[in-house]
Automatic annotation (TrEMBL):
It comes from Anopheles coluzzii (African malaria mosquito). The keyword rRNA-binding does not apply. The lineage of its organism: Eukaryota, Metazoa, Ecdysozoa, Arthropoda, Hexapoda. Residues 53-308 form the Menorin-like domain. This is Menorin-like domain-containing protein. Pfam families: Menorin_N.
Amino acid sequence: TTTAHHLFTFLLSLPFTCGSYSAFFVIIQSELICSKLPAMLSTASSVADAKANLTKITWAHAVNDAEFLTRVLASDVQFIEADISLGYLKDDVNKEREIPIMAHPPATESDISLETFLQRILQFNREANDPSKVKGVKLDFKSIGAFERSIDIIRASYDMTAFDTWINADILPGPVDNTATVPVDPTRFFTAARRLGKATLSIGWTTRWGPDFSEGLYTEAQVDAMIAAIRANGIDKVGNAITFPVRGGIVANSVTNMIRLFCALKDTNNVTFTIWSSADDAVNVEKLREFIFTTGLDRTYVDVPDDLHKKLHLDENAFSNTCKKTLQARCFD
């Protein structure tokens, strides 16, 4: 503590500009904290614990039918991910009313509508007597039409101010020459999203990857296109939280460009990353760990298959023996 005090006193005597002080103090603070403190988490409550280590948050995927939703609500899962498409309820045998339903293409039928899905989760969350039981919701839209048709339903059927609500879509073409998947139109997406207030925007790139891939990354041009789309549509000005869903095998090769992405938006939006991976994806585990450590356990959600999650060893002390700059400090490199 004495050493730190003398160091800061010395720094104050230097003829730096205000901006230089800011940059220097972030870096020095990073090094001081890093040298003195292990990467321990708060255990005061599950909420504090989750904020300190987002990698601990658990997920349920493709919760697209009523029975599955019932089981997930009764479980300890913390985040519910589900797909929304335009289609028909199964009891609409004559297919007379096309509405937003819970279904992943190519499915066009479901036994639960988006409206009922949200109403059930809202009721559960309001009646939960333990804050740790409350579920977050990630709504994955498969087309711009499905999203635009869903805005009024979300506003009427859910409380986005009280409970975590993510709006997910791939809005730009992405790595490895992916041409098979058409991204959701970013301008129309952001126009509709602004009607949802401060919902978290989970916005990513379409990707192509698999077991036989080892080369590929989120390129500088793709990162620049994302930054440009966010700024062109005023999302930096309204300040929505943004999480970037990034594919594990690809982002492991993209640390530098992800730092650029964070640094470009950190002053206007709360930026996090959500790592995802398909079951058979090729992933360099050590490089992916390096990405997670660089961005930080408090800025990185990990939504990957269980076997990959175990290989990453993301426990409380996973990175305590290694000392590196904070993500904030890296913006001044």
